[in-house]
Specification:
751 residues; alpha+beta; 4 domains; 6-stranded antiparallel β-sheet; 18 helices
Length: 751
């Protein structure tokens, strides 16, 4: 330890001399480390509690980043910081959590979420620098009794403007210590941070951004799924922003492509999977034999193979049949028996069904006329790798249902142009699904891409001159030889289509769509050409970059108040999803001024209590009420509207040993003695409470407490669940109210 202190003193002395001497050259590494360490210690209020310290620089092309590490027995602190000592990240480990409590059962955390946020804000005030402000994201999770840490995220505003910089922070619950932190920083970008001045108004910027939108008019299914209505839907577009300094509309997508240019990922390679081996011969139960018997009437593998290869457009010459599987259509949520043919051998794979009542077996078995599909997998080995095709048919009729597959990568394989490929696709679809294909037109297509080497076409139904992509057929045609590589269909002929009368124009729809976005001035990450940035960026250029991100103030589209899918083509209203999920929160409107208000509201903040908006504090406590309360304290929370609400709660109670199934009485009113007994049993005190002759308590009615409940009464007093002395009654035989039961639990949890 003395050697460390001596070394530190010498280092400080060296630093002092360097500050007084003329700057002849760059500081030595030890002097730089001293400066960084002093700045970080001051920011984080680090004392001399650590016994080991290491500091190492990483000289990046954007500037140095220091890794600092303090440690001693049982604790460690790692910090990364800039050359100026700005803290970029922190990780802390130690054996001291600041929590000396030790108890079983539920308890309130030592720190509320709001208190933890205050700790986080105080930490950020220490590490943020001039011009930086932390803006917390809205909390998406409620308070939790089981929380050991609270997590916070947010963004860092610069000079009063939003920016792409973010922060993450974790606060330990027992003692409020920040144990993890990381942030973005301007040091990750090239160039100096410009000021927040602007030469263009938000209104003019919004008008420029509005011109980047385009919409298309299409049929989509309404919320019923039975009718198609017309909507203006947004087309995919590039990202744009308006430069605050010049007022120019800038295409960010194109600049990002320049930034990413040159990056090349390795092409995916497909591994040849070995065919599964035949399963060992096993004895089958009666039910399994009956299930397999339902495959009666399906076509054999050889017949199916002939039917598939009869489709010449698939061009399966040279492909070998690897395996065939049959799948029986079953009722929802029931296992599916599969018979797979591998190397000519039939292999039965039957899912096991446990605990199925005999009387329901017939009802839940597969109908004799259930549909059976057959999936045939083909493979062809070439010098470039393995090409595969998967073909699905109706196993009883042989009707082709779908095709999928891919070709081994082959450089320069494209020989079939788009026009020829589309002609082959249309000829195939006319033969396969002629009636439905006749209702469609070409909706979209894709250039052949290297991996599959296939043209991809989608044909969608068109009604009243507008597409309905909900009814569509997709087909892929090999760009190498024109083979049909894949085909799939989603088509419902029963859909009803709304009329095309009284539609708003695209201009009107764009006004509505663009108006749903706020346009705000912020700092934006903008790729810039490095050869315009001077010699300071030479290391980046030498590292292979021609563009790199800088921060510029500008106007861009902000986050909307909701997610919208489009604009109703008749009403002109934004269309939002009909479904949404909000985590339930527990609040009461009938506890104001009640003697148990504090207990009830503090419990409800952690979803401990009862949903429905009312606590009904003075109502008699029923057995079901109490089980719901105890279950919620363990995180098992149900709403009364949930299916099988009561049954699920009693299942929980039986599992926890609170009562037996024979003791279930949903509406039974519980006495105070019964409430204490169930609570202490749930907390693991049952064995102790039933020890005879060792307990006493100070309740005024102690003599009236039944002998079998004396242990529970004494423990209840000792644990602070029920207070005794000063003439207070235990009142073991009096019916308990909901408020009394909640307060007993609250008293225990706040110990």
């Amino acid at each position: 330890m003395k050697l460390r202190k001596l070394a530190a003193a010498l280092l400080v002395a060296a630093l002092g001399m360097s500050l007084s001497a003329p700057a002849l050259a760059a500081d030595a590494a030890d002097v730089r480390l001293t400066k960084v360490t002093q700045a970080v210690k001051a920011a984080l209020a680090i004392g001399d509690e650590y016994e080991e310290f290491y500091g190492e620089p990483e000289e990046t092309v954007l500037g140095p980043v220091w890794s600092l590490s303090w440690s001693s027995e049982g604790k460690r602190l790692n910090v990364s910081a800039t050359e100026e000592g700005k803290v970029l990240s922190l990780s802390r480990w130690d054996d001291e959590t600041g929590d000396s409590r030790s108890q079983s059962g539920p308890s309130f955390p030592a720190l509320t979420q709001e208190q933890a946020k205050e700790k986080a804000q105080a930490f950020l005030a220490q590490v943020l620098t001039d011009g930086e402000e932390a803006i917390f994201d809205e909390e998406t999770f409620g308070a939790s009794l089981n929380a050991t840490s609270y997590y916070f995220n947010g963004s860092i505003h610069l000079n009063g403007l939003p920016s792409p910089l973010t922060f993450y922070l974790r606060v330990r619950v027992p003692d409020g210590v920040v144990t993890s932190f990381r942030r973005g920083d301007v040091s990750e970008y090239v160039g100096q941070l410009p000021g927040a001045e602007t030469s263009i108004t938000a209104e003019k910027a919004a008008a420029l951004l509005k011109d980047t939108f385009s919409l298309r008019l299409e049929y989509v299914q309404d919320s019923t799924g039975e009718k198609a209505v017309l909507r203006w839907l947004p087309n995919a577009t590039d990202d744009f922003y308006v430069d605050a300094a010049t007022g120019e509309l800038v295409n960010l997508t194109e600049l990002r492509e320049q930034l990413e240019k040159g990056d090349s990922g390795a092409a995916n390679r497909f591994n040849v999977s070995a065919a599964p081996e035949a399963a060992a011969d096993t004895a089958l139960s009666k039910a399994e034999l009956e299930g397999i018997a339902k495959l009666e009437g399906v076509l054999e593998q050889e017949e199916l193979d002939k039917l598939v290869k009869a489709w010449k457009a698939l061009k399966l010459e040279g492909f070998e049949l690897a395996n065939t599987s049959y799948r029986v259509e079953r009722q929802d949520n029931w296992p599916t028996p599969i018979v797979r043919v591998v190397d000519g051998l039939a292999v039965a794979e039957v899912a096991e069904v446990a605990e199925v009542a005999e009387e329901s077996a017939e009802e839940k078995s597969t109908p004799a006329d259930a549909k059976v599909t057959a999936t045939l997998t083909y493979a062809k080995k070439t010098d470039e790798g393995i090409s595969r095709r998967t073909v699905t048919l109706d196993a009883k009729t042989g009707v082709l249902e779908s095709v999928s597959g891919y070709n081994a990568y082959k450089e320069g394989a494209a020989k079939v142009d788009e026009k020829a490929a589309q002609a082959k696709a249309e000829a195939f679809l006319k033969e396969l699904w002629g009636n439905q294909f006749a209702k469609t037109e070409r909706y979209s297509s894709n250039e052949p891409y290297s991996l599959s080497g296939a043209w991809r076409f989608t044909f969608a139904q068109k009604v009243n001159g507008y597409f309905f992509p909900g009814n569509s057929i997709t087909v892929q045609v090999s760009a190498e030889d024109g083979a049909i590589m894949a085909v799939s269909k989603n088509f419902d002929d029963s859909v009803e289509f709304d009329s095309a009368d009284g539609l708003i124009t695209e201009e009107q729809a764009i006004d509505v769509w663009a108006g749903s976005y706020p346009v705000e001035l912020s700092y934006i990450a903008v790729p810039v050409k490095l050869d315009l940035m001077g010699e300071k960026v030479r290391p980046l250029i030498n590292a292979g970059y021609s563009y790199y991100n800088t921060l510029k103030p500008g106007y861009a589209l902000g986050d909307r108040d909701a997610w919208y899918s489009g604009v109703d083509a008749k009403t002109g209203e934004l269309v939002a999803p009909k479904y949404s999920y909000t985590a339930p929160t527990m609040t009461y409107d009938d506890v104001e001024g009640h003697w148990a208000q504090t207990a009830l509201t503090e419990l409800a903040a952690y979803n401990v209590g009862w949903f429905g908006g009312k606590a009904l504090p003075d109502s008699a406590l029923t057995q079901l009420d109490y089980i719901a309360l105890l279950a919620s304290s363990q995180g098992y929370v149900l709403e009364p509207a949930d299916e099988n609400y009561a049954d699920s709660l009693y299942d929980y109670a039986v599992r926890q040993g609170l009562l037996t199934r024979e003791e279930r009485q949903d509406g039974k009113s519980l006495t105070r003695g019964e409430v204490v007994r169930m609570l202490l049993d749930s907390l693991g005190y049952k064995q102790v409470a039933n020890l005879p002759g060792i307990f006493r308590c100070d309740f005024s009615d102690a003599d009236a407490i039944p002998a079998g409940e004396m242990g529970y009464a004494a423990l209840a007093q000792g644990l602070g669940i029920v207070h005794g002395g000063d003439g207070l009654d235990y009142a073991a035989g009096r019916f308990a109210s909901r408020a009394e039961a909640a307060t007993m639990l609250w008293q225990y949890m706040k110990r």
